[in-house]
């Protein structure tokens, strides 16, 4: 049996349309038909009922579909494991990580971890912080690094890093927090951990400030450089811009009350996960 036949069958079965299946698989429609015919010949039973251009699964097709999915999953899993073995790996660690963490301290951490444990294959999945707990809970990844704790009861969340929050704005000689709040919009909600409390604090003393929600820190920094606003950001996220003098940070009583936290989220502790956690905890 050719695995291509199974892949074609699964897509055609889910779409119930050979033309759309060909588009999904980037093959010709005659190739789809040929794969299905060969699979039916191999199994000696019809999997689809044909009625002109429309097709639908037979009882045998419905019965075979979950089996085909299981076979392809097992085949791909085994081939991936074999490919990892060829590369010298004997363990695998999948980490889901928030973009801010992946672009700040994770590269140096991973470099040291891989150097010490070269036999552990590491895959990185970049996701928003509020999605990370769900993925760890579902077991699709081993560990998560997020800016907020997981709400799922079958996971645990450990604080592994704390860093200060700073007021970042365009480079303006003599400016202070009061001047910036009066002349610029505050770019908000680019971090999941502290914005609600911070805005409440800011508006208590500055009720007329204008805000603009910008969901990504990288975009927030570009907006600051362009003079579109100011923001309160984790210090690690503005280090590069400070070095090349694209933005500046200013003293802020409001930012001193906030902290950016990094959480390590796990469901079940594995050996490779424990090793990585030790690395993170020792930062």
UniProtKB/TrEMBL annotation:
InterPro entries: LysR_HTH_N, LysR_subst-bd, WH-like_DNA-bd_sf, WH_DNA-bd_sf
UniProt key word DNA-binding: yes
Gene3D superfamilies the record matches: 3.40.190.290, Winged helix-like DNA-binding domain superfamily/Winged helix DNA-binding domain
GO terms of molecular function: DNA-binding transcription factor activity; transcription cis-regulatory region binding
Signal peptide: none
Database matches in SUPFAM superfamilies: Periplasmic binding protein-like II (SSF53850), Winged helix' DNA-binding domain (SSF46785)
Keyword line: DNA-binding, Transcription, Transcription regulation
Residues covered by the HTH lysR-type domain: 1-58
Family: Belongs to the LysR transcriptional regulatory family.
PANTHER family for this protein: HTH-TYPE TRANSCRIPTIONAL REGULATOR (PTHR30126), HTH-TYPE TRANSCRIPTIONAL REGULATOR CITR (PTHR30126:SF64)
Protein's recorded name: LysR family transcriptional regulator
